[in-house]
């Protein structure tokens, strides 16, 4: 009888241990499923991007890089005297593609969503308008003054608002329209003293407005609604952009690139500009994914006014009282627009988070991991 009771207690202890082990095993399986979903699927990578890089971080990152590349590109165009804007853009994108290829080789590039979720024609359109937007912007800067470039940039804001209303029925409140109007008027007044332009450059600037608006809308929409991360979307569209930039090269760049003095110092400055170009593209994509196309344009106009005031206070530049007043007006309008955006955010529901992979599918996904990696590697772009 005593031995029977001992055996009975032993069986209870073993069952309890088996139950505890089963619960721990299920917890480990859930953890593995969560980690597998987080690092190997686009929705997990998208949540990671949102958690690490929120709107304030993305906009600040983009602002700092944008200011830095202005000074480096000024060195490229004036000190180095590299007068080939399309080729410079092409070099930027080649370096960007090479850096992303390194990230992919070390499995650090976020995976792309399923090709069924995004049509190839959408990615092709984005790559095409990106080449036009960046290429035309650099050509416009070559022939026109900064002031005229900023005046053309003002037209991008109403173009985005109009396009989003026509395509997606997206409306903007009256207060936001008034704030954007104040920003546009302020930038126009701030840059009115620097409206030197070339007829060909003016035509290029006008042709740049529509591709720039479409480019920002697509970048923002694909990231916010189809689980694309900034780097994965750059990886898919950069080859398309390179093809169109190469086609634009003989049409918009002047001859004489072979006679350029490619010494070590010149090459290092151009390469530094290309590195900043990659960071600018990445930070711009992060900002568009975290905010909206209109907010990104407003940030660019805010940057222009800050640079104007910085040159005035730090370096003694005197653009005139009218320009200074216009810059302060634009900054005030930007502040109001930002406040309205922040005020509206609490009313929005939090974005729907995709669920973790079911445990029953974990074995299948683990068994097909190599196949997925191969698919991402050989998928046409």
TrEMBL record:
<feature type="transmembrane region" description="Helical">
    <location>
        <begin position="269"/>
        <end position="290"/>
    </location>
</feature>
<keyword id="KW-0472">Membrane</keyword>
<feature type="transmembrane region" description="Helical">
    <location>
        <begin position="297"/>
        <end position="315"/>
    </location>
</feature>
<protein>
    <recommendedName>
        <fullName>Sugar phosphate transporter domain-containing protein</fullName>
    </recommendedName>
</protein>
<dbReference type="InterPro" id="IPR004853">
    <property type="entry name" value="Sugar_P_trans_dom"/>
</dbReference>
<feature type="transmembrane region" description="Helical">
    <location>
        <begin position="174"/>
        <end position="193"/>
    </location>
</feature>
<feature type="region of interest" description="Disordered">
    <location>
        <begin position="345"/>
        <end position="381"/>
    </location>
</feature>
<dbReference type="Pfam" id="PF03151">
    <property type="entry name" value="TPT"/>
</dbReference>
<feature type="transmembrane region" description="Helical">
    <location>
        <begin position="84"/>
        <end position="103"/>
    </location>
</feature>
<feature type="domain" description="Sugar phosphate transporter">
    <location>
        <begin position="60"/>
        <end position="337"/>
    </location>
</feature>
<feature type="transmembrane region" description="Helical">
    <location>
        <begin position="230"/>
        <end position="249"/>
    </location>
</feature>
<feature type="transmembrane region" description="Helical">
    <location>
        <begin position="123"/>
        <end position="141"/>
    </location>
</feature>
<dbReference type="InterPro" id="IPR050186">
    <property type="entry name" value="TPT_transporter"/>
</dbReference>
<feature type="transmembrane region" description="Helical">
    <location>
        <begin position="52"/>
        <end position="72"/>
    </location>
</feature>
<feature type="transmembrane region" description="Helical">
    <location>
        <begin position="321"/>
        <end position="342"/>
    </location>
</feature>
<keyword id="KW-0812">Transmembrane</keyword>
<keyword id="KW-1133">Transmembrane helix</keyword>
<feature type="transmembrane region" description="Helical">
    <location>
        <begin position="199"/>
        <end position="218"/>
    </location>
</feature>
<feature type="transmembrane region" description="Helical">
    <location>
        <begin position="147"/>
        <end position="167"/>
    </location>
</feature>
<dbReference type="GO" id="GO:0016020">
    <property type="term" value="C:membrane"/>
</dbReference>
